[in-house]
Amino acid sequence: MAGLKESSGNGLFDALSDEQPLQIAGVVNAYSALLAEASGFKCLYLSGAGVAVSSRGMPDLGMTTMDDVLTDLRRIRQATDLPILVDVDTGWESVDETIKQMELAGASAIQLEDQISQKRCGHRPGKKLVSIDEMQTRIAEALRSRKTKMAIMARTDALASEGIDAAIERLDAYVQAGAELIFPEALSELNQYRKIADKIDVPMLANMTEFGKTPLFNKSELASAGVHMILYPLSAFRAMSAAALKVYQAIRQDGDQKCMIDIMQNREELYELINYYEFEEKIDEDFKVEGENYD
């Protein structure tokens, strides 16, 4: 793949060289990034929908800002050195400023899409796209603004409204404009990935989001269809949210959380992941603290 050679040194491409297909874990905060890293993932993803729902408690309908995403990205970057792919929607008010700020915050790659600014979830009806020329302009502006090896991924939502041939035409045009990675959204068949892979020679991402248009294909199935990256954008967050709701409901219903203890992460597991004792010892050393250990 040409993209791997041209962008050598970028953490995401380095991970792609080590693992194919590269499984990318969606994370919503710094701690979930640590959990994903401890599980063996070599690349992370910060979803626009994840930021909207987990950090703002609102739907992913273009209402969150670049600053909302940057806040979460900075915290995740402080917690891990893994490469991070960041969803920047349509680039907000200025693609130039978006690129500058994402580079400063530590993004390894950004995902730029071809919807209008008032975007919708890629698996919902009613999506409206900009012209090919306008999306190429977004990509060109991103490349002009880029000062580091941060990679540019182009996403298209064309399949739902324009069909697979139009989606391929768009992706090819985006690669011609300089996109180094591609993301065809809401595909419904493995053969659609194969058709894209036959026409376009840059790494392709498959989005395995739950409860959407795309079946939850296995890693081996996607590999056989020419997919290079597999994204699980909100899998863990959905599970966390369902578990949290059960705990809250049990406490309200039973008056305590005893029946939920078995599904909880225990204190030692938490402390190990966040290096609690190491930090505690450093504080004790710095401040010469002696006495009881308060939990």
Radius of gyration: 21 Å
Helix content: 40-55%
- Counting DSSP E segments of at least 2 residues, the number of strands comes to 8
Low-confidence stretches: 1-8
Question: SSE string, helix = H, strand = E?
Answer: HHEHEHHEHEHEHHEHEHEHHH
**End-to-end span in angstroms?**
52 Å
Gross geometry: globular
The class by helix and strand makeup works out as alpha/beta
* Mean of pLDDT: 92
- Give the number of helices: 14
Strand content: 5-15%
- Sheet with the most strands: spatial strand order: 6-5-4-3-2-1-8-7
The profile of the biggest β sheet is: 8 strands, parallel
What's the quick description here?
The protein is an alpha/beta fold and 295 residues long. It is 48% helix and 12% strand. Strand 4 (109-113), helix 7 (132-145) and strand 5 form a beta-alpha-beta unit.
Write the topology of this structure.
Layout: H1 2-6, H2 11-18, E1 22-26, H3 30-38, E2 44-46, H4 48-56, H5 66-79, E3 84-87, H6 95-105, E4 109-113, H7 132-145, E5 151-156, H8 158-162, H9 164-176, E6 181-184, H10 190-199, E7 205-207, H11 219-224, E8 229-232, H12 235-254, H13 267-273, H14 276-287
Parallel strand pairs: 1-2, 1-8, 2-3, 3-4, 4-5, 5-6, 7-8
Helix pairs in contact: 3-5, 5-6, 6-7, 7-9
Explain the overall architecture:
The structure is a single chain. 48% of the residues lie in helices and 12% in strands. The chain has 295 residues and is an alpha/beta fold. It has an eight-stranded parallel sheet. The protein starts with a helix and ends in an 8-residue tail after the last helix. 40% of the residues are buried.
